[in-house]
Design a protein that fits this description.
This protein has a single domain, classed as HIT family, subunit A. The relative contact order is 0.22. By secondary structure, it is α+β, with helices and mostly antiparallel strands. Strand 2 and strand 3 form a beta hairpin. The chain has a five-stranded antiparallel beta sheet, with helices on one face. It is 26% helix and 21% strand. It binds guanosine-5'-monophosphate (5GP). The site of guanosine-5'-monophosphate has 13 residues, from strand 2.
């Protein structure tokens, strides 16, 4: 079971504009901004505008329109991020064992250099 959504998590505050971020994308379903502690030349976070704790919560409970809108937004952001140096990596941490820090769904977009093998 997913924990209840905490409307005071840091990404909720970024979504409401209560704390600053370097936004690169925004539409009805998603916003994207630069990760404050980048792990690649381009490291963006794409989050849905709706109150979803994780990929687990979102994929189970969001509407078809929200899911389509979010996936399209991740695609657009990643395509742009991967346009100069070819390719990118998407990552979503879910729950305790993944090390998920912020309880609002975010998809990491890494790009801008050869990213090396996945670590397990
Ligand atoms: P997680 O570990 O939950 O998958 O990823 C959380 C990410 O959010 C981390 O990469 C971290 O650097 C980033 N982050 C945490 N707080 C902030 C913030 O206030 N602003 C921005 N832009 N990124 C943040």
């Amino acid at each position: 079971a997913t924990e209840p959504y905490d409307p005071n998590n840091v990404f909720a505050k970024i979504l409401r504009g209560e704390i600053p971020s370097k936004r690169v994308y925004e539409d009805e379903f998603a916003i994207a901004f630069h990760d404050i502690n980048p792990h690649a030349p381009t490291h963006l976070l794409v989050i849905p505008t709706g109150p979803y704790v994780s990929w687990d919560d979102f994929s189970a409970n969001a509407s078809d329109a929200e899911i389509a809108g979010f996936v399209r937004a991740v695609g657009a952001v990643a395509r742009e991020a991967g346009a100069v140096e070819p390719g990118y990596r998407l990552l979503a941490n879910v729950g305790l064992n993944s090390g998920q820090e912020v309880p609002h769904l975010h998809v990491h977009v890494f790009a801008g250099k050869p990213l090396g093998p996945m670590l397990a």
